[in-house]
Each structure stands twice: as structure tokens, then as C-alpha cells.
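Subject: sequence -> C-alpha cells, single chain

Hey, anyone have a minute? Need the predicted structure for the following. Not urgent.
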Amino acid sequence: MNAAQQDVFAREVDDAMREDQLRIALRKYGIPAGVTVLAGLLGLAGYLWYNDHQQSLIGAQSETFALALDQIEAGRTGTGKDTLAPLSKTGSAGYQAAARLTDAGILLEQRKDAAAATIFATLAGDASAPKPFRDLATIREIAIKFDALPAGQVIDRLRPLAVPGNPWFGSAGELVAIAYLKQGKSSQAGALLAAMAKDKTISPSLRQRARQLAGQLGVDAIDSAELARIGAPQ
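Reply:
Had a minute. Here:
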């Protein structure tokens, strides 16, 4: 093997290792499947949807939904599902969607990924559900099916959400970045991860993870203000 071939081989190995490390990081630190985390995402979706409906109606349904989540998180899954059942059938559009998402979250906890993905996919395509819930369902569906989906399909479906200013920028951006890597587009992946790392609306843990992953791709993801704050050399 001559020097040029060795150089190409080394770069290919390095790129493969980077992609593998990022995929492992996604699986280890990426979008969690637990009901508690799902409830947190639902809180954001509920907040976005809240102002479009009558406060008195939402109050009663909110109490029912909160009670169901408390029961589920306490390990009384069956009781929680029973509490949610009326919302799934007669609740407002937002709480019907929230109940369906929670049912899917329970299935994930029970390692019934295929059944959960079916619920997410159905909700994602339900035009009667509020958009924040459909967007969340899309992310959850793709997260479950990620390894089986073509990278182009992941990018096409999530790219509209993987932009600064979108509530799901962090969650969608992480999946899109890995899909770019599957296509060998490390520059696009690095740029997206860097944008996530600098977006202060994203959770600190996700920003830190994006910064680390961007660094593995050779992209500087620390802005000047943060450099000044931590006293790092400019």
C-alpha cells in the first residue's frame, strides 16, 4: 500500500470511527423513551397549544391529565391508562393527542417499540391534531425507526423542524445530523450541531452533547461570549 492509499485509508477509518462514535452517542444520550421525559415534551406542546382554547375547559382536562401522569410515574400504569381513557375519546383535540402520545410512551417503556411507532405515525398524520403534537409524534416515530429508514427520508421529514427558532430544533436536529453522517455529509452535520450548541433555547445537556459531537467533526461550536465566560483563549 503506497503513501497515498494509506492516507485515503486512514481518512476512511477516521470518518467511520467518528460516525460510529456519534451513533453510539445518539443511542446513549439521544431522545429518551421514558414517560417522564415524554411528559416534559408534552408540557411544552401543551403550552404552545394552550392559548388557543378556553381556559375553563383546559383546567379540568389538565387536572385529569396531570393525575394520569402522576399515576403512571408512580408505577400504576393500568390506573393511569384508565384515567386517560376519557380524554382519548372525548377530550379536546390537544388532550386527545396528549393521551395518545402518553399511551405510546407507555408502550416504549414496555419495549413494544413497533406498537408505539404505529401510534406516533398515526398521530403525525392526523390533521385534526394540533401541530405541536404532530411534530412531536413525527420526531418520536423517526427516532424509533431511525436505523431502518433511509437517511434521506429522515432528513426530508425532520428538516423543517431542525431549524433555529423551532421548539423541536434540538430533538429534530440531533437526528438530522446523524442522518447527514450516514450520507457522508460531515460538514452539514457539523454545522447543524454547532448551531444547536450555540442556541440558548435548547436544554444545556443537549447543547453540551451537540458541542462535543461537533468537536469530533472538527467544528468549533463555542461562541465568543461563552469563551469569554469560561476564560478560554480566543
